[in-house]
Design goal:
The protein has about 350 residues and is an alpha+beta fold. About 50% of the residues lie in helices and about 20% in strands. It is built from eight helices and eleven strands. It has an eight-stranded mixed sheet with strand order 2-3-1-5-4-9-10-11. β9 and β10 form a beta hairpin.
Length: about 350
């Protein structure tokens, strides 16, 4: 199907939705909400279609003026200048529309579960994991998202062995999904007397938050253990068995929660994380199957490779997937991630466009 045929279908569907929504009294609330969202999603596409059609019409008019022997020479020169601009603009409009028509990731509009874990490097890796966790927390604040800390396992000097948070807002997963992977840091640890640069790492996982309709969990597949919560060094923080450990037997995934004083709340948080991990597991399986078919790793969520390096002596951040280097490490760690994320999203779009051709 050609681009024009696809655009015609989009325009027809947009008009159909407009007529259906005009008779909203005949729709149940859930159906009205679904159609309204589809209408809103198609609106910018139809607007871009209109821009493309107008640009094409203008190009035809300019060609007629240029080719007409009776056209005033000054007018012909103006038409040629306009034609040059239109020849630049038309491909840009067509590419924009092709991006609009790319299949959407069903998880893009979902909220996310963020998991950060210290990797190789001991205490320095734990301190870096804490830095990353705060970086995402700050980024969420800048975007106006809600950042809810779900659990933190601290070390003695301010590092995090692991930390989990729920991030809620518009387009959270779409912005953060490329953050999953191994993040490497190069810096002189505060505890290093000789001033040698150490390399350590932390892993980040960004999981789309799954709803009950996304993942069915059979209670018979769960082993649920309750135990007494404890703080750092075994210090008791609760005298009741409120901590919860849930094991999903078919996959072996284990989730523990003990931050809340209520066993019910800890169980609810643990189930939320378990659903997200199972949903991500299924997404990764499907992506791996697609990758095998088209011999490409786009969208596979592969977290086995180092994706980014944070070099403190050079105040440098390098994302190895898009060969992007920024010399503003302090600002990136303070949550200014948009330049990196925009480059990753643009790269993903370019790859998917190339595959769609």
């Amino acid at each position: 199907m050609s681009l024009d045929e696809k655009l015609q279908r989009v325009t027809e569907r947009f008009d159909e939705l407009g007529m259906l929504l005009a008779r909203s009294e005949a729709l149940v609330p859930a159906e009205f909400a679904r159609l309204s969202k589809e209408y809103a999603d198609l609106s910018p596409v139809v607007d871009a279609v209109g821009q493309l059609q107008r640009a094409r019409s203008e190009a035809e008019q300019m060609e007629e003026l240029i080719g007409d022997a009776g056209t005033d020479p000054e007018m012909r020169e103006l038409a040629r200048e306009e034609m040059v601009a239109l020849k630049r603009r038309l491909p840009e409009l067509q590419e924009q529309l092709q991006l609009f028509l790319l299949p959407k990731d069903a998880a893009d509009e979902k909220n996310a579960i963020l998991e950060v874990r210290a990797g190789t490097g001991g205490e320095e890796a734990a301190l870096f994991a804490a830095d990353l966790f705060r970086m995402y927390q700050r980024y969420a604040e800048l975007r106006g998202w809600r950042f809810e800390v779900m659990s933190i396992s601290e070390t003695g000097i301010g590092g995090y062995k692991e930390a989990t948070a729920g991030i809620t807002g518009t387009g959270v997963f779409a912005r953060l999904k490329f953050e999953s992977g191994v993040h490497r840091v190069q810096r002189v640890p505060e505890t290093e007397a000789s001033g040698r640069i150490h390399t350590s790492a932390a892993t980040v996982a960004v999981l789309p938050e799954a709803e009950d309709v996304d993942v069915h969990i059979d209670e018979r597949d769960l082993r649920i253990d309750v135990f007494r919560s404890s703080g750092p060094g075994g210090q008791s923080v609760n005298t009741t068995d409120s901590a919860v450990r849930i094991t999903h037997l078919p996959t072996g995934i284990v989730v523990s929660q003990q931050d809340e004083k209520s066993q019910h709340k800890n169980r609810a948080k643990a189930m939320k994380i378990l659903r997200a991990r199972l949903y991500d597991l299924e997404r990764s399986r499907v992506a791996a199957e697609r990758a095998a078919e088209r011999k490409s790793q786009v969208g596979s969520g592969d977290r086995s490779e180092r994706i980014r390096t944070y070099n403190f002596p050079q105040t440098r951040v390098t994302d190895h997937r898009v060969n992007l280097t920024l010399h503003k490490l302090d600002r990136v760690l303070d949550g200014e991630l948009d330049e990196v994320l925009d480059a990753l999203i643009a790269d993903d779009q370019a790859n998917r466009l190339a595959e769609a051709v």
